[in-house]
Every structure is written in structure tokens, then in C-alpha cells.
Design brief:
globular, Arc Repressor Mutant, subunit A, single chain, Rossmann fold, 224 residues
């Protein structure tokens, strides 16, 4: 069953749920509004077709997207959403923890990736961070990304690495495993403003425009 709210203006963060299991959608929706009343569940859909049609006119702030859908897959839907609506952040919410799915989702433009075992308060916080432009990964997903980086056999692209300073590479490594600016600052013993300056420099050197694009570049080109 599909549920849809009106598309009138809202002061909260407008969240769209996409999953083909109505009971799961209902549970997520209830838990999110319990832990963060500023999150507004504007609609719930169980098919790719429905979410693409709705999003084109309603422009939600954040979409929670399952991968396995009856009429397609969430990764392809994510690619279409992020290409057509760059202001909408997509977080994958899936049972799959395979690195292939994670990389495919990030390459498709997803702002984050969480397993369905995530706690409500963690997901609510991730929605806020994604809405603010952060890349967000659950601890399990971040660990999978880190293992992939640690066991990478392809050498980094020399030109790209030479462009980035050692401190910028430190920031990029932490960014890749889902750290927020405050966490990066604390771990590297820097000010938040300095971290933000490093991020601007990283974006310029990698020719990307967001944290998610920087993470994708880091993984694809072996920069970390």
C-alpha cells in the first residue's frame, strides 16, 4: 500500500520512504518521528516507478531507499534521483552489506548507506547530516569500506596523490569512513574551521562538489 501526504511547504526535513514491505516502512516512519519530531514523513512507496513520479513534483529533502524493489532496483533509482534532483539526498537502507552494493550506491550518488538493523536515533541523525550535505555510513558499512581500502592491491593514482597534502589525505581517509567534521577535527586535533578549509581544498583538487563525490573519487581512484 502506498501512502502520500500533501506537497505543501514544510518547515521540517521532508523524508520519503521507499521499501516494498509496508510493515517495515510503517515501523521506520513511526520510530523516526518519535526520536525527531522535525522529520516529516511525506510519503511511503513500494515501487521505483512511484517514487520517481512523486519525487519529480514533491522534491523531498531526503529519500530512504531500499535496493531490492519489485519493478527495478534502488541503485538505479538513486542515480536518476540524484541526477535530476541534486538537492535531494538519498540514503540506502538495505539488508545487503556487500562492498559491491555499497560502492555501486555511492557511485550512483547516494549520500549514505545503512543496514536495516540501524537504530532509530542513528538513522534520524544520519538523515539530518545527509540533509546538511554530509556523507553518512553506518559503522558496519564504514568497516567494509575500510577493509576494501586496506586490502586494495591497485596502487593509487600518482598525479592525484601528489596534488593532495598529507593532511588532506588524512582528512579524506576519515571522510571516506563516514566521519563528520567535528569528529575529523577531534581525531586530527584540528579546529573545525581548519577541517572545512581542507575539505574545500580537497574538493577543488579532485574537481568534485560534495562530500559524497569526494568519497566516490577516493574509493574509485585508490586515493586512500
Amino acid at each position: 500500500m502506498t501512502t502520500e501526504a500533501g506537497v505543501e511547504a514544510s518547515t521540517g526535513i521532508r523524508v520519503l520512504l521507499v521499501d516494498d514491505h509496508p510493515l517495515f516502512r510503517a515501523g521506520v516512519a513511526q520510530r523516526l518521528v518519535e526520536v525527531d519530531p522535525d522529520l516529516e514523513i511525506v510519503a511511503e512507496f513500494g515501487s521505483v516507478r512511484e517514487v520517481l513520479e512523486y519525487s519529480s513534483r514533491a522534491r523531498p529533502d531526503v529519500v530512504l531507499m531500499d535496493i531490492a524493489m519489485p519493478d527495478g532496483n534502488g541503485i538505479d533509482a538513486t542515480r536518476q534521483l540524484t541526477q535530476n534532483m541534486p538537492g535531494t539526498a538519498v540514503i540506502i537502507l538495505s539488508i545487503y552489506d556487500d562492498i559491491q552494493y555499497i560502492e555501486a550506491a555511492l557511485e550512483a550518488g547516494a549520500a549514505g548507506y545503512f543496514l536495516k538493523t540501524v537504530q532509530g536515533h542513528e538513522l534520524a541523525a544520519a538523515i539530518r547530516r545527509a540533509h546538511e550535505g554530509d556523507a553518512v555510513l553506518s559503522p558496519e558499512v564504514a568497516a567494509a569500506v575500510f577493509r576494501r581500502i586496506s586490502h586494495r592491491t591497485t596502487p593509487p593514482t600518482p598525479a592525484r596523490v601528489q596534488e593532495l597534502s598529507s593532511r588532506e589525505l588524512d582528512v579524506l581517509r576519515l571522510l571516506t569512513v563516514g566521519r563528520a567534521n567535528k569528529e575529523i577535527a577531534r581525531e586530527l586535533e584540528l579546529s573545525v574551521r581548519t577541517v572545512e578549509a581542507h575539505l574545500r581544498s580537497i574538493y577543488a583538487k579532485l574537481q568534485v562538489g560534495s562530500r559524497t563525490e569526494a568519497v566516490i573519487a577516493a574509493i574509485k581512484e585508490g586515493l586512500v
